[in-house]
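Listing 4. Sequential folding, example run.
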Amino acid sequence: MISRPIRWVLWLLGMAAFAVAVALAGRHGSGYVVMVAPPFRVEMSVMMFVILAWPVLRWPIGLIRLAVAPYGLPRQLKKCHAEQERAKSARCRFCEPGAAFFGAVS
């Protein structure tokens, strides 16, 4: 598995490569998007439309994920408690021989 700092560096390199690709694609794209509502007409480049449409399309996905997330909390809480119990029992098993040798009573 890749360590956390290397993962961050790879993520940043990937994002930089994506930004360069978008900039190059935007430089060579000469298309326009025209949106017409009877008294108004909005004309913008395809790249501007994609940049503005991305958050608008991601917003509902984020809201759905935010609404669904609490339903997984009980399962995560059970898993966390089970892990804490395992760690506690492992700690007790590790300390028992020393306690028996030195005569400590727990």
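-- end of first protein; second protein begins --
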Amino acid sequence: LKEYNEDNDLIGVYDYELDRLRLTRSSNKKAMEKGIEKGIEQGTEQKAIEIAHNMLNENTPIDFISKVTGLSIEKINKLDQQEE
């Protein structure tokens, strides 16, 4: 009977550790996915800024640049001021 109780205790510890590892793995996976998503968003915005710079250099109207890149007119105006 004593061995039975020790085995149940061991199984309880094992189950606890297994649950803890599953939660950690799940949390790590979600964090990684979120990081990748954020990196993609930053890369997309950086590319839009690069395109806006090129369009500004070609004297493209700001409202058209905004429509093409998805950047706000305010942001494009700031970029335009930086280039001057």
